[in-house]
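Reopening this one. Same input as before:
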Amino acid sequence: MVSGVELIGWASLEQLTVTAPYNAEKDVLLGAVGAAERTPVRLTAGQAAIFYPSDAHAPDLAAGVSEAVKKVVVKVLLDE
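Same output, byte for byte:
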């Protein structure tokens, strides 16, 4: 996280109920996870998080008051 504060919802991909099929062009799979199964991850400037293909995550959640954030996202291709 470069600046601002962001809340990210995390859950195991196994807990995800898929609501839209995987979109290879956007590299995204949409789904829903119950509130009880979600873990909130709060990131502030200078912090980082790593998410693996087995992780479901929902970025861009407001951490209290909504504010602009700057972040760097790096995707690494894994051998299958």
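So the earlier flakiness isn't reproducible anymore. For the record, The beta strands are 5-12, 17-23, 28-32, 39-44, 55-61.
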